[in-house]
């Protein structure tokens, strides 16, 4: 046994296999199809092996895993993936993520992972600085904006009810003064799920109509605040909505809401990153006045999943909504225990990848990433939108835009235009050269263009435009 290399160094062989497979994937992104090529039955057939009675050697498990997923891994790590809002991973943050798993710390308490507690403390300070948020705000590194909404809105729920003499953490919501949520109609579905999880429910949300540019008008908000003025109120604003990247006029809306005692929560899942760019920062003027903010690391910052950030202007409200003390835990007074700010108990040291990405890119690197991707989004939308058979629906002001492919036949209906749009999107995916998603925006099917990946280059834009041209080429198949 003592002479067995695998016994003495059980990790080496399997990690070397993983390293080779990872490089094979990453270094082949330029040649591999961006969309999936394997079907669902194929993937189930390959991966759905019987659970073995006896274990297998780890290198064999990893080799077979890499072979079995073939065609089922999207090329989202590469530069020609423009679907949803999905970033890749910078080399430094990927490497840091590997180390996170190797160290395998429980980053819930300083005592269980001292270095990682300090790393998160540093990340919080760097992020607030980069995103232009108040230095005194508290923060939590969570799995994504979904849970960041839960954190921000839990703090809101605490603060609004505490002001009315109601201790929601002990009394719950039954019998509490009913909270209402005023929201731009452009909000993301994760907000509703956060409200459901927090027991506020979705019926308390009033949709306020956004204007043509996707922004919530001040007079609309003022009128809504005047009705039921006594009710505890959360105002939900958008820093970059999911379809067109619209920014609410924060400097106007937030003081208005505060004058009525409302808590202002900002969804900036990707859009908050515009603050890192001198060219785009003006879109966020006044956002620092809000009470809680949400953004993602795994989108525009290009760190691996899962990585989102919540920030709360009132640390006491944040802490009161989540902190817990137990006799078997080792709490420290001076260090920052993540457990006091996060909804998880045991958790991954997810600050490590963020720490690495921020050092790897630096202030200028993040600004450049934001500006470059915005420029490419603009170029993609304007160039694809000017191809015969295409039209621009939304010209990007940041990294999001919309294109549509109308049905050219005389007398074509809206339903025909919608169908044609989906058909062209599918045609682009079939080329394997680029990936875009569809959306329905103001009643019309559109192709959504989102550029978030640090790797996207001028050549990638050329290839994506060529793919769109190719998908538009063939005569439309007769529809039945
Ligand atoms: C992606 C997104 C979310 C959800 O973020 P997750 O990280 O997927 O939880 C919320 N709001 C907006 C505007 C988004 O783009």
State the low-pLDDT regions, or none. Answer: none
- Strand arrangement within the widest β-sheet reads 1-7-6-5-4-2-3
Ligands: pyridoxal-5'-phosphate
Based on Cα principal axes, name the global outline: globular
Q: Averaged pLDDT, please?
A: 95
* Strand-residue proportion: 5-15%
SSE-based structural type: alpha/beta
| Rg (CA only) | 24 Å
What this model shows, in words?
The chain has helices at 5-8, 12-26, 40-47, 58-68, 91-103, 114-131, 145-162, 168-171, 189-197, 218-226, 250-259, 315-322, 351-385, 414-431, 458-472, and strands at 138-142, 180-184, 205-208, 233-238, 263-267, 292-296, 308-312, 391-394, 400-404, 437-441, 444-450. With 480 residues, it is an alpha/beta fold. Among the domains are: 5-32 and 36-73; 106-347, Type I PLP-dependent aspartate aminotransferase-like (Major domain) (Aspartate Aminotransferase, domain 2, 3-Layer(aba) Sandwich). The strands form two sheets. The chain has a seven-stranded mixed sheet, sandwiched between helices. α11 (250-259) links the parallel β4 (233-238) and β5 (263-267). α6 (114-131) packs parallel to α13 (351-385). It is globular and about 65 Å long. The model has no long low-confidence stretch (mean pLDDT 95). The structure holds pyridoxal-5'-phosphate.
């Amino acid at each position: 046994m003592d002479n067995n290399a695998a016994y003495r160094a059980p990790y080496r062989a399997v990690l070397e296999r993983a390293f080779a497979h990872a490089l094979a994937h990453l270094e082949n992104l330029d040649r591999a199809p961006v969309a999936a090529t394997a079907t669902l039955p194929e993937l189930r057939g390959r991966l759905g092996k019987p659970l073995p009675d006896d274990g297998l050697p780890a290198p064999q498990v990893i080799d077979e895993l890499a072979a079995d997923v073939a065609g089922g891994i999207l090329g989202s790590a590469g530069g020609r993936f423009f679907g949803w809002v999905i970033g890749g991973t910078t080399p430094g943050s990927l490497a840091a993520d590997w180390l996170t798993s190797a160290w395998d710390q429980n980053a819930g308490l300083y005592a269980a992972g001292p270095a990682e507690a300090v790393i998160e403390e540093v990340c919080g300070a760097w992020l607030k600085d980069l995103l232009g948020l108040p230095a005194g705000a508290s923060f939590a590194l969570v799995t994504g904006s979904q849970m960041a909404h839960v954190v921000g809105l839990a703090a809101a729920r605490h603060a609004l009810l505490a002001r009315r003499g109601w201790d929601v953490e002990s009394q719950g919501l039954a019998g509490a003064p009913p909270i209402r949520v005023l929201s731009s109609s452009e909000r993301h579905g994760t907000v509703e799920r956060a409200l459901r999880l927090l027991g506020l429910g979705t019926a308390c949300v009033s949709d306020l109509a956004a204007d043509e540019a996707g922004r919530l008008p001040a007079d609309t908000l003022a009128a809504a605040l005047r009705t039921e003025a006594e009710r505890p109120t959360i105002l939900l604003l958008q820093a970059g909505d999911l379809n067109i990247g619209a920014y609410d006029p924060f400097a106007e809306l937030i003081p208005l809401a505060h004058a009525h005692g409302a808590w202002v929560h900002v969804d900036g899942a990707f859009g908050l990153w515009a603050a890192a760019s001198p060219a785009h920062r003006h879109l966020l003027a006044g956002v620092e006045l809000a009470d809680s903010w949400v953004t993602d690391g795994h989108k525009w910052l290009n760190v691996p999943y899962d990585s989102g950030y919540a920030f709360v202007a009132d640390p006491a409200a944040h802490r009161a909504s989540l902190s817990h003390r137990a006799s078997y835990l080792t709490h420290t007074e001076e260090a920052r225990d993540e457990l006091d700010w996060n909804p998880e108990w045991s958790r991954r040291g997810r600050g490590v990848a963020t720490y690495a990405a921020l050092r790897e890119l630096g202030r200028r690197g993040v600004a450049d990433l934001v500006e470059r991707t915005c420029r490419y989004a603009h170029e993609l939308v304007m160039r694809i939108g000017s191809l015969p058979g295409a039209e621009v629906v939304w010209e990007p002001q940041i990294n999001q835009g919309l294109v549509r492919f109308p049905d050219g036949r005389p007398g074509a209906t809206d339903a025909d235009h919608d169908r044609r749009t989906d058909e062209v999107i599918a045609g682009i995916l079939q080329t394997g050269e680029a990936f875009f998603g569809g959306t329905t925006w103001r009643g019309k099917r559109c192709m959504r263009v989102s550029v978030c990946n640090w790797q996207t280059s001028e050549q990638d834009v050329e290839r994506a435009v060529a793919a769109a041209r190719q998908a538009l080429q063939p005569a439309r198949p007769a529809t039945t």
